[in-house]
Amino acid sequence: MKEKIRIASGQGFWGDLIEAPFNQVTKGEVDYLVMDYLAEVTMSILQKQKNKNPKLGYAKDIPELMSRILPVCKEKGIKIITNGGGVNPMACAEAVFEVAKALEINGLKVGIVLGDNIKPRLEDLVHTGTHLNNMETGESIGRYLDKILSANVYFGAFPIVEALLKGADIVITGRTTDTGLTLAPMIYEFGWKKTDYDLLASGTVAGHILECGAQASGGNFLGDWESIENMADIGFPIAEAYQDGSVIITKHEKLGGRVSFETVAEQLVYEIGDPKAYITPDCIADFTSIKLEDLGDNRVRVYNVKGSPETEFYKVSCSFSAGFSASGSLTYSWPQALKKAEAADKILRQRLDNLGLKFDEIRTEFVGYNACHGPLAIKPDENEINEVMLRVAVRGQDYYSIERFGKEIAPLILTGPPAVTGFAGGRPKPSEVVAYWPALIPKDLVVPEVKIMEMN
Q: How far apart are CA 395 and CA 350, in angstroms?
């Protein structure tokens, strides 16, 4: 049993810094590389890709990345854990094996966690009384069954632990909690049990700090952001974990960014809901119990985390088709830039109304004035604004109305206020609106399945 392990964050979302995983395994010593690719909307995108091609449905960046890091990880004994399997972990694993074969890497074991996709079971679940009521509205999912795009259960750390116990070098999952990716190697290496709630909560907090990548090491920092050094080559955070549950958050010395009390604390309060009850499939963590100690030299100790037993439910993340949307923009220049943009918006809305078009929502932003702060924005002196971008978006169920809106933007150039530019790319086209449906499901209705694939 090891005294400590070093777990490196490699991705905070699908589309994050491509060089980060490579830097994490080459710029210093780590034992695990964890990569979080999934968000709620990502699952629906991946499901659409799989519907078109059954060999897709996972983060397509992974094979190319593996071609760069597999030789390093194999040589150093670094294990890789990722939820980038999306809605098709098996296909992702097969793609990884293709890379390993091309690199002539033998003896690779890949663990795959399956069972999170319950979309094929929705009708039966509703029919037998599990209505997957929306956590915000209380409404049953039953009336939306024909519009559901994806439905995935958030598994936790223990299926990953099972894969590691079976000798996996790489673990690829579907919808696993962001925190579970980091917690799993701690459970595996330190022998923590399901009832070690304080320890599980400590690992969960470490996972929460790592889950957004460089957001814990100086990226997107709201404090003295100008003093963060070398953000062009920013280092992602690393959790140096100990058997007693204490964790030191750090980064590779050779890379930029900063790990400090402030950067870690700022990430801790990101997307947590009730700070006394941060609920995961593995435990409930009390974020009000956390203590931080800045040790200097980009090292922050996290300790004293308290936990309690997990709930009897898994969270389910569903997405469904909710109509269409389109947006377009025009830019008006000084003088009277804002006044021109406001007039153009009024003209456009009147024309849409005259046509009898139907929308659930029309939203206008004046970029350069209120796009960030909305109604809280302070209206500036007209002479102080060089330019304003008028950005209008519409959303609704009627495809024709959304499409016709796209044909009414360009005419404003010659039939509206003067000094306008910025129209490019053609008419705005309708795109499908994907809505989010959060729900709970009893744990006894869903069983994770762990498979091991081995390359001879």
A: 17
* pLDDT recorded at residue 61: 94
Q: Which has the closest alpha carbon to 324: 373, 360, 374, 281?
A: 360
Q: Is 226 exposed, middle or buried (0-12, 13-18, 19+ CB in 10 A)?
A: exposed
106 Cβ contact list (under 8 Å, min separation 6): 100, 455, 456
Q: Flag residues of the chain having pLDDT under 70.
A: none
Residues 283 and 338 in one domain: no
CA–CA dist 69, 51 (Å, integer): 30
Give the pLDDT score at 430: 97
Query: Is this structure's pTM higher than 0.90?
Result: yes
Residue-number span of the structural domain to which 200 is assigned: 4-116+154-311
Q: How far is the CA of 178 from the CAs of 188, 221, 335, 403, 456, in angstroms? A: 17, 20, 49, 38, 31
Which pLDDT value is given to residue 5? 98
Token code pair at residue 24 = 């994490």
Rounded CA-CA distance 285/198 in Å is 8
Separation of alpha carbons 277 and 132, rounded Å: 22
Question: What are the angstrom distances between the C-alpha of 79 and each of 242, 282, 285, 415, 418?
Answer: 18, 21, 26, 62, 60
DSSP state of 155: B
C-alpha pair distances (Å), 331 with each of 121, 339, 342, 406, 414: 49, 12, 11, 16, 13
Q: In the block, which residue shows the tokens 């947590």?
A: 272
**Per-residue tokens: 381:** 């002196």
What SS3 state is found at 302?
Answer: strand
Q: What is the pLDDT of residue 209?
A: 98
Domain check: are 297 and 337 in the same one? no
Contact (Cβ atoms closer than 8 angstroms) between residue 175 and residue 156: no
Predicted local confidence at residue 413, as pLDDT? 96
Asked if residue 148 lies in contact with residue 320, where contact means CB atoms within 8 angstroms, the answer is yes
Report how many domains make up the chain: 2
**CATH number of the domain within which 409 lies:** 3.30.70
